Automatic annotation (TrEMBL):
Superkingdom per UniProt: Bacteria
Gene Ontology MF annotations: DNA binding; DNA-binding transcription factor activity
Keyword DNA-binding: yes
Alphabetical list of PANTHER family matching this protein: HTH-TYPE TRANSCRIPTIONAL REGULATOR SRLR-RELATED (PTHR30363), HTH-TYPE TRANSCRIPTIONAL REPRESSOR GLCR (PTHR30363:SF51)
HTH deoR-type domain sequence ranges: 3-58
Pfam families on file: DeoRC (PF00455), HTH_DeoR (PF08220)
Gene3D superfamilies for the chain: 3.40.50.1360, Winged helix-like DNA-binding domain superfamily/Winged helix DNA-binding domain
Keywords: DNA-binding, Transcription, Transcription regulation
SMART domains from the UniProt entry: DeoRC, HTH_DEOR
SUPFAM superfamilies per record: NagB/RpiA/CoA transferase-like (SSF100950), Winged helix' DNA-binding domain (SSF46785)
Record protein name field: DeoR family transcriptional regulator
Length: 252
């Protein structure tokens, strides 16, 4: 794995957990302590993280993380290319679900249907969709999660059951031969309900998610129909996708 990919994954982890030790970095990537320290130095020098005793934490201004991540990938980056292609799959009069995901969010600027309906529990998605005159938007209610800017809880899941989708566009924290992984336990219930209510499930994931697991396995590969990514899969993962009849679209 290239250093840039490790740095982005470290930043993603910090957005969820706030702190990370040198040992945790070594374990996550299977690297030496010297390599982990070099990664920490690069992140610290960029202003993306703050050093602590034995590790790193987020600076007070989380915008620094976003700025650093943007510098690692020149525009158009992999996520934007994935989003642009995924937007072409949204047809006139489709009912679609848009997940809480920075990659899924990249669909929104490229939507072109004459009329469609979008359902989301992401505050940022809803704000961006408000600028799309041809898209009718439903924002699912629930408890506001300030860090990830989405709504969750029983009321969110209950309201979701009122919809049937033509297509669901989901993100992922990790993808392996065993399935699709997510950060939180509540994610798995939400994702499974979405899949059960969608004629077609499309997962969007950049190369940093491929071949990795995370805390909770939310979906099996057989639950999804299409994977859109920006890097060829390993032979093992490609074979697993083929065995589960998943169409893989690679955006170069």
């Amino acid at each position: 794995m290239y250093q840039e990919e490790r740095l982005l994954r470290i930043l993603t982890h910090l957005e969820e957990q706030d702190t990370m030790t040198v040992g945790e970095i070594c374990t996550m990537f299977g690297i030496s302590r010297d390599t982990a320290r070099r990664d920490i130095v690069k992140l610290t020098e960029s202003g993306a993280v703050t050093r602590t005793h034995g590790g790193i934490t987020l600076p007070r201004l989380e915008q620094k993380i976003e700025a650093y991540a943007a510098r690692l990938h020149n525009e158009p980056d992999g996520k934007m290319r994935i989003g642009r292609h995924a937007a072409k799959l949204v047809l006139d009069h489709d009912m679609v679900f848009l997940d809480v995901s920075t990659t899924v969010q990249c669909i929104i600027p490229h939507l072109k249907p004459a009329h469609a309906t979008a359902v989301t529990h992401s505050i940022d998605n809803a704000c961006m969709l408000a600028d799309q005159a041809t898209i009718q938007t439903h924002l699912l209610g629930g408890i506001v999660q300030p860090k990830t800017r989405h709504l969750s809880g029983y009321s969110t899941l209950d309201k979701l059951r009122d919809f049937q989708f033509d297509k669901a566009f989901l993100g992922a924290a990790g993808i392996s031969e065993a399935g699709i992984y997510y950060h939180y336990e509540e994610d798995i219930y939400m994702k499974r309900e979405i899949v059960s209510r969608s004629r077609q499930t499309i997962v969007l994931a950049d190369c940093t998610k491929l071949g990795h697991t995370h805390y909770y396995r939310g979906l099996s590969l057989s639950d999804i129909d299409i994977l859109i990514t920006n890097q060829p899969l390993s032979p093992e993962l490609a074979n697993a996708m083929k065995a589960n009849h998943v169409q893989v679209i690679i955006i170069s």
